[in-house]
Amino acid sequence: MMSSVLEKVVAEIAAAPDGGAALTLYALVSTLEFERAGYLFKLAKLRALSADQRRLAYGLMELMVENANASADWRSAKVRMDELVRAG
User: Fold this and answer.
1) CA nearest 32: which of 79, 72, 81, 65?
2) Rounded CA gap, 19 and 63, in Å?
3) How far is it, in rounded angstroms, from Cα 33 to Cα 24?
4) How many Cβ atoms sit within 10 Å of the Cβ of residue 21?
């Protein structure tokens, strides 16, 4: 079952797939898939998010710490996010 954080991020992106917050969260998800690259994400981008959206971002980072960014749920959510952003 997909984590609540991932479900909420997918919903956030689905609500406005071409919006700044959606694209920032999508960029974070994409970045958190590349440990070898050092998870390079410009933290200043978090300033553009609302408090609720920042909590989602922090939740994504927590999933990475728990190695959930390598899970089937993460991959499934990422595929859905890819579709939403491409269609947006």
Assistant:
1) 65
2) 24
3) 15
4) 20
First to last CA, the chain: 26
Helices (H), the chain: 4-15, 20-31, 51-65, 72-87
Please state the domain extents for the chain. 4-87
Q: List the chain pLDDT tens, one digit each, 88 residues.
A: 678 999 999 999 999 999 999 999 999 999 999 888 788 889 999 999 999 999 999 999 999 999 999 999 999 999 999 999 999 8
Please name the residue that has the structure tokens 């959930």: 68
